[in-house]
Amino acid sequence: MAILGLLPPITAHPSFRWLYSTTVAALDPTVYSILAFYITSASYRAFRARNIETMIFLIAGIIVILYNAPIGGYLHPGIVTLGSWAMNVPIVAGQRAIMVGAAIGALALAIRTFTGRESAWLRAGGGG
What we know:
By secondary structure, this protein is mainly α.
């Protein structure tokens, strides 16, 4: 179906539209509902408040989840403000730190490879 979708005249055919509406369009909500159950179980495991750090993590996670949910702004108007701050300040800072760490690691690996101190790439397919 993915290959047939690349051909423009076939996508307008009624058989293709029927196949799409009965398979892909029907499987889409199924996948999202399974994802919702997975997120719920992962949230339960991650958001158990045992100490003050996990309590802060729990509150921040609830704010971000409510910020992303359509009903979050209706429950409390401050959720939108707090959620956008959380998405723009600490999360971006964490992403920048990860990118800087990855760049430093890549640079260190490049220097080791160019100076001949890193030979793991020579036996990449060797299995050990």
